[in-house]
C-alpha cells in the first residue's frame, strides 16, 4: 500500500502503519512525512495533562463524544509511560476507549515511552502531523502523567487543558514548573465530590500569579466526565479559545512555536544518538573519554566542545 | 580572588561564587572549571529523590549530621523547582538547613530551575564537580520533586536514594518511568505513621519487577528523620553500597556513565541555544521557518537536517 495515497484517502490502516513506522524511526517513513507536510496545518491541536487519578481518559472519551455531536472528526494520541506499575490502569483506559474506536470519525492511538525520551516527543509530533494530513479536525494529545516531558509536549498544543480533581490540589502544586503557565483551560473533574469549590478556588489563586496575555483569563470549568456533565461546556471553551487565538492573531505564533519545538526535538534526538554512538565506538572519542574519566586531563566543558568538533568533521 | 586557588584552599566564598558563575553560564568560570577537573573524581555522589511531602529535606539534614559523626565532610546541592507555588515550603526547608550551615564541614547550595532546563542539569553537574574539587567527601544532590529531569540528574549519582512515606505509594506508582530503576536504596520516611509496613511491601514488590545486577538487592529502610531514627542505618547503607560498587568493579562504570551524561547535557544545552538563536535571527533560517510554517514546502525532519547543516557551515 502506498502510505501517502492511503492517508490522503483516509485509510485508517495506512495511518496506523505510518505511525508505527515513525515510532520505530523507520527511514521509509521519512519520504512519506515529507510529502504529507503540505497537507498539515489545518487541525486544532488540543493537549490534555493533569493530576493522576483525575480521570483524564474518561474526560477525553466524553469530550470526543461531544466533539462528534458538533460534527468534528477527532484524532486522539494517548501518551503512556513505560513504567510497568501503571500498566493495568492504562489498559483499562484503552478498553474504555474502544467504544469510540468503532466510530469512523475517531482515530485513537497510544504511544509508549519505551523508546528514548527525545524519540517519544518526535514520534508524538509526527503522529499529530499524520492525523492532521489525514484530515482530523481536532487532534487531542492526552498524557497519562504530568512530568516535564508531558508538560513540554502538551504545552506545544494550540489549546492546553490542565485537569485536576477535588483534593488534587497538592499534586497540582507539586507538579513540574510550567504546568500553570501552559493551561489555557482548567478543569476540575469529578466535581460531584466534596472539595470541588476549594479545588477551583486554589486553581484560581494559582492562575492569578501567572502572567498572561492581558486580555485572556483561562476559564476554570467543572465536569463529571463519567456522567457527561459539563463536557459540552468544555467543548465550547475549546472552540472559544481557538476563536480567541485567531481573532487576536495569536494562532500564527502558536503554530510557529510548535514547529520550532518540533525542529528542536528532532535535532536533540539526532544529536543524542550521534554523541552516544561516537562516545561508545569511535576510537578518537574513546580516547577522549579516558582523558575525561581516568587521567582527568580534560574537563567536561572542553570535552563537549571536542565532541561537537569531532562530529562536524566526521559528517 | 583567584577562584581556582580559593577552592583548592577550601575557601567557601570562592566555591559559592564559582557556583553562581556556572549558574549564570558565565564564560569566566570555564577556565577555572578546566583547571579544577584534575582534582575531581574523589567524592561519593549521593542522589536523593522521591515523593513530595516525604520529608526529603529533613532526611538530608539528619543524614548530614550522621555523616559528620562518621567524620565525613559533606556538600549538599538542593534542586528547587521554579514554580512559585512551592516557594514557601522550600524556603522553610532552607531555613531548617541553616543549622547545618554553621558547621565548616558542610556546604549547602540551592539551585533553581529558573534557567533553561538543560542549563539546570549542566549547572548542577558543575556544582557537584566544584564541591568535589573543594574536597567534600560525600556530595548529596537532593531534588524537591521527582519529575523526569530530577530522576535523570539523581540517576547519574553513584548511589541513588528514593524516598517515600506511608500512604505515598500511589505517588511512587505515578512517578515517572525510571524511578524504581535508579533506586540503589529505598527509604520509607515518617515510618512511625500507620501504613509503613504496607509502603515497604509495595516497594519490595515493585523492586522485584525491575531487573538488576544479579548480586544486588536494594535495601528498603525505615526512618523517622525528625527524630533521627534509622538515619545511622541509612548512613551505613550508603557506605555499603559504595563498597559494593568498588568490590564488584562497578564504580568505574558509574563514573564513566556520569561523565557521559555530563557531556550530553552540555552538548544538548549548547545545541538548543544555537538552534533557537539561528531560527529567531538568522535570515536563512527565518526563510526556512516560512517554508515550514507558511508554504509548508519543507517538513520538520528535512528542516531539522537543514538547520544542522547550516549550523555546521556557520561554525
Can you describe this structure?
- With 315 residues, the first copy, chain A, is an alpha/beta fold.
- Chain A folds into 2 domains: 3-248, Rossmann fold, CATH 3.40.50; 260-314, no CATH class.
- In chain A, 57% of the residues lie in helices and 13% in strands.
- Chain A is built from 14 helices and 7 strands.
- In chain A, strands 3-2-4-1-5-6-7 form a 7-stranded parallel beta sheet, with helices on both faces.
- In chain A, helix 10 links the parallel strand 6 and strand 7 (220-222).
- The two termini of chain A are 34 Å apart.
- Residues 83-92 of chain A have low confidence and may be disordered.
Determine the structural class of chain A based on helices, strands and strand pairing.
alpha/beta
Distance between the termini of chain A: 34 Å
Q: Total strand count of chain A, please? A: 7
How many structural domains can be distinguished in the coordinates of chain A? 2
* C-alpha-based Rg of chain A, rounded: 21 Å
Q: Assess the beta-strand content of chain A as a share of residues.
A: 5-15%
Order of helices and strands of chain A: HHHEHEHEHEHEHHEHEHHHH
Largest interface: A-B, 69 and 70 residues
Kindly report the oligomeric state of this protein: homodimer
Low-confidence stretches of chain A: 83-92
Q: Choose one word for the global shape of chain A.
A: globular
Going by CATH, the homologous superfamily of the largest domain in chain A would be P-loop containing nucleotide triphosphate hydrolases
Helix content of chain A: 55-70%
User: In the CATH hierarchy, what is the class of the largest domain in chain A?
Assistant: Alpha Beta
Name given to the CATH architecture of the largest domain in chain A: 3-Layer(aba) Sandwich
CATH fold name of the largest domain in chain A, please? Answer: Rossmann fold
Order of strands across the main sheet of chain A: 3-2-4-1-5-6-7
Number of helices of chain A: 14
